[in-house]
Amino acid sequence: MINGCAAPAHHAFAPIRPGRGNTAIGLLNAATTANSFGVGVMGSLLPPKLIEGHTIRTVATTATRTEGANNVLSQRNSVNGYRLHSIKITILQGHETDMLTISNGVIKNNTLQSAVGTTPPSPYG
What we know:
Layout: E1 23-25, E2 39-44, E3 49-52, E4 55-59, E5 62-67, E6 72-75, E7 78-82, E8 85-90, E9 106-108, E10 111-113
Parallel strand pairs: 1-4, 2-5, 3-6, 4-7, 5-8, 6-9, 7-10
């Protein structure tokens, strides 16, 4: 559920756009399989991004992710339970519009805790 809304059946849960103060609760638990996916906060190819003050829990893959975006600031988020990445700022590849270079990504003052009973988080998380 996200802010009281049920997720589509084909997703672990629906992404929230970058911004401030949303709550995202995924479906990650000890029974979640390795091929389950879910992202808490997602943004691609948009103007400068602020990802701030979100509460993100039990996501199957990545808590926050931006693709192909410069000038990303991720701060004061609380993440408890993720399987692969806590906060990820990455290039955009494999789409009609590739953005293979990004700059000015800042991750600061976030609280991160890993998932229990699932594949351990990546050391690059």
